[in-house]
Amino acid sequence: MQLLSGLLGLAAVASTTLAAVSKSSPPAANVSVLTTFSFPSWAENLAVRASGEILVSRLEAPAVYQIDPATGAATLVYAWDASAYKGCLGIAEMTTDVFYVITSAFIDDDFVKQSGINSIFEVDMRAFVIGSDGVVTTNATVRKLVDVPEADFLNGMAVLDDSYILVSDVYAGEIYKIDTATANYSVVISDPLMKFDYASHPPTNLGSNGIKIHDGCLYWTNTAAGFLARIAIDAGANPIGSSAIAVTGVPKADDFFIRSDGVAFICQNQMDTLSVAYLDNSASTPAYAIAGSNTSTILAGVTAAKFGRRSVDESTLYLSTSGALALAINGSVVVAGTISSIDTTLY
Fold first, then answer.
1. Model-level pTM greater than 0.85?
2. Which stretches in the chain have pLDDT values below 70?
3. PANTHER family, per this entry (predicted)?
């Protein structure tokens, strides 16, 4: 019995040590490519349906596609008028199979609005059906929710509750709160840590980019400043107290995902890298690169991350990529956008 207790004690110590080591030096992730779009293509954001299919917004053209997680087959859900919108960005599910997606005004190479308008559309997938031959037999129902003419460049989206969504203006560094029942909206948060010029010499004019709500806080990436920040919010998304930097060392951070246990997976678009960080509610934490690099095309321009929702892929993190269209690898290499994945069991 004494020997057994000793062995169990050693096992517990080993397990604890392994956990500590993995957090300070997490292993590299193997990337599997599920879908490769035609070239050129920019898969900007993604959402996962309750049934498991992946919805992907495209930025180089205003469209949303559905990806079969088993086969990788891509099916067009809806395409907007390319003379009215540059592309699609943040997408999020409010109630089962009812999604909202951002359509973008026209921007220049520095992501500054040149013409047009940013809008939010509702995409109702409840009636959407694909036949056995891969052809859509019943379309999604798509309607415009609202135009936001004063916005510069709407980008990230998060669902607040069954009535409201939050949307980030990545250029202005502001968060809009939008009522999906009335289409009324207003700026609810404008914080110094959201501004691209928070960085002393900003490498880009993109500030608050991806946004997520986790554990009573709104989190956002600041692309120019290279961090993940947070601020406590009330039920109406009004800020409580001061903002703080939650994760450091993520240059060119784009969208991200925070797992329920506080593990954050951060997409660094123009670094072609996926990083992981272990959140601490009372302090900043570092990030660790686990996949891709700025000399590799495996995650070229990685933009966003979402977990699968089926029992077979609940630990699978799906990743969208832009093919490095925003910043070519080694100055010249661009590839087609993809949907890829990693297994997150070790993180």
1. yes
2. 1-22
3. NHL REPEAT-CONTAINING PROTEIN, NHL REPEAT-CONTAINING PROTEIN-RELATED
